[in-house]
Amino acid sequence: MSFVSVLSGSLRYSDSSSSIGYLPEVNVGLAADIGTLSYLPKITGNHSLMRELAYSAAMFSAADAECLGLVSRVVPGGRTEVVTVALRLAGVIAGKSPIAVSGTKRILNHVRNHSVPENLDYTAVWNTAAFRTDDITESLRAAGARTAPQFPPIRKAKL
Fold first, then answer.
1. What is the DSSP letter of 132?
2. What Rg, from alpha-carbon coordinates, does the chain have?
3. Which keywords, in A-to-Z order, does the entry hold (predicted)?
4. What separation, in Å, do the N-terminal and C-terminal C-alpha atoms of the chain show?
5. Boundaries of every domain in the chain
6. Which numeric CATH code is attached to 3-93?
7. Strand-by-strand arrangement of the 11-15 sheet
8. Sign of dihedral through CA atoms 96, 101, 103, 107?
9. Is residue 14 a contact partner of residue 62, using CB atoms and an 8 Å limit?
10. Hey, do 3-93 and 96-145 end up sharing a CATH topology, with the first three levels equal?
11. Contact, 11 vs 89, CB < 8 A?
C-alpha cells in the first residue's frame, strides 16, 4: 500500500492496491482528533459520506477514494510508481513561479472557509502584491526567448 501526499497534503496519490481506513479512531472509543472531521466533508463535499466513514471506520479501495475525491489520482503499481508520478508532478510544479504557486495554494486554502466575494477580494490583494515581484517579467522574458524561466526563490521577510 502506498499513499503519497504532495505539497503538504494538498494533492494525494494512491497506488491501485491500497485499502484506506480514513477514520479508525472510533474503533478505540475516540472521535478523530487531528483535523479529519474538519477536512473530510470539505474534501468530499459530502456530509453523509463523512458520517458513514466516521461512524463505521470502514476500509475502502483506492478506486473508491478517487471517486470520493479523497485522492486525486490512483497510480497503477506500488510505492515506486506512486513516488515516480508524484516526483514528476513535483518537478513540474517546481518549474513554475514560486510566487504563483504559493499564492495559488494560499487562495485555495482561503476559499475553503470564505465566500466567493471574500475570496475574490483576497485574490485581488494577493495578485496586486504579486505584480511587484520579478516572476511575471521572467515568465514573459522566457516565453519570448522560448526558454524555461529561472525564478528566484522566495525571500523570507526579516522581522
1. T
2. 19
3. Fatty acid metabolism, Isomerase, Lipid metabolism
4. 44
5. 3-93, 96-145
6. 3.90.226.10
7. 3-6, 11-15, 73-75
8. positive
9. yes
10. no
11. yes
Q: Has domain 96-145 been given CATH number 3.40.1000.10? A: no
pLDDT in tens, 96-147: 999 999 999 999 989 888 999 999 999 999 999 888 889 999 999 999 999 9
pLDDT tens digits, one per residue of 5-60: 544 457 888 888 888 876 788 888 888 877 778 877 778 888 888 788 889 988 88
DSSP H/E element including 68: helix 62-68
Residues in a beta bridge with 59: 21
Q: In whole angstroms, how far apart are CA 3 and each of 13, 113, 147?
A: 6, 26, 34
* Alpha helix (H) residue ranges in 7-154: 36-44, 47-56, 62-68, 79-94, 98-111, 116-130, 135-145
d(CA 92, CA 80) in angstroms, rounded, equals 19
